[in-house]
Amino acid sequence: MTRLLLYEPSYRSVEDRLPKSGLEIVLMAPDASLSLDGQPISVEDARPEVGWTNMDLYAGPAGKYMRALLGSPSMKWLQSGAAGFDMPVFAELVSKGVRLTTNSSQSVCIAEYVLHGVLDHFQRGAQRRAAQAASQWKRFPFREISGTTWLIVGYGAIGQETARRARAFGARIIGARRSAGSHELADEMITPDQIVSRLPEVDVVVLSVPLSKHTRGMVDAAFLAAMKPKSVLVNVGRGGLVDEPALLAALDTGVPEFAVLDVFETEPLPPESPFWQHPRVAVNPHASAMGSGLDERSRQLFLENLNRYVAGQPLLNEAAPGDVLAR
């Protein structure tokens, strides 16, 4: 019998699609109380083997839920609602031998956000909106994505979905990951040590790599100085990937020409941050994943992985313990 700890609203959203046998469900109510088969149960007696975090839980008693998982001697697998694994609690769980699977469900909405950010800048959306507000009939020449070169750093689900869309517009794609090889959605694959040397030929740099001790601060002054004039930097990974003072200084020189930023070192972004008013920056409050299809894709992923877990099959998006602990 596999015992799951599920947040009650999350459970209700998949109740009719769960396996019909072999499961025990411990429910956590919005007030963080626990129950099993309708009877109250203590945190000590919950002893879950499987957990599932998602957007429902993040708006609820997430802290108490994670403490219940950490305190369980039976805990074996967590399906995370996050694409990355830099939260300290993930390392705590993995250090106890818990398997961690990440969430690829954000890839569609984040990829659409990336394309929108680049298109809006290339097509001079800000100037068009200002002209409309002033009732001015102005025509603005704009850049095309067709013929541009994109470097996508981190070629997991988000990077691949971004590549799929940019290629549809006629962009050339260079993907960067630890093992280069080849990929059907890339014109070329490179390794991280090759990134800086290729920046002078790249029009759009997309950061979709997890934050770890290897990637923290990777976009530093040297990285920015190597970027191409009129290039665009897009960060949908983590704020810690970028040396923010160095980025602000580089933007003031005009290279890169523009930054599309969904994530920041400090979140929420403080009101006094110069990013808010910078004319070369588009600020988004870490919301690129909030697409209309996210919740259902997340449910489908959890259900698929739960069926695999019960059947003893490989799990989708399983994070390597070494990567989680090396954050």
Written account of the structure:
By secondary structure, the protein is an alpha/beta fold. The chain folds into 2 domains: 2-105 and 293-325, 3-Layer(aba) Sandwich (Rossmann fold), CATH 3.40.50.720; 107-283, 3-Layer(aba) Sandwich (Rossmann fold), CATH 3.40.50. It contains 13 helices and 14 strands. It has helices at residues 8-14, 43-46, 55-58, 62-70, 88-95, 107-122, 125-133, 157-168, 195-198, 221-225, 244-253, 294-311, 321-325, and strands spanning 2-7, 23-28, 34-36, 39-41, 50-52, 77-79, 99-101, 149-153, 172-176, 188-190, 204-207, 232-235, 258-261, 281-283. The strands form 2 sheets. Strands 4-3-2-1-5-6-7 form a 7-stranded mixed sheet, with helices on both faces. The protein has a 7-stranded parallel sheet with strand order 10-9-8-11-12-13-14, with helices on one face. Helix 10 (221-225) links the parallel strand 11 and strand 12. Helix 6 packs across helix 8. The chain is elongated, with a radius of gyration of 22 Å. The mean pLDDT is 96.
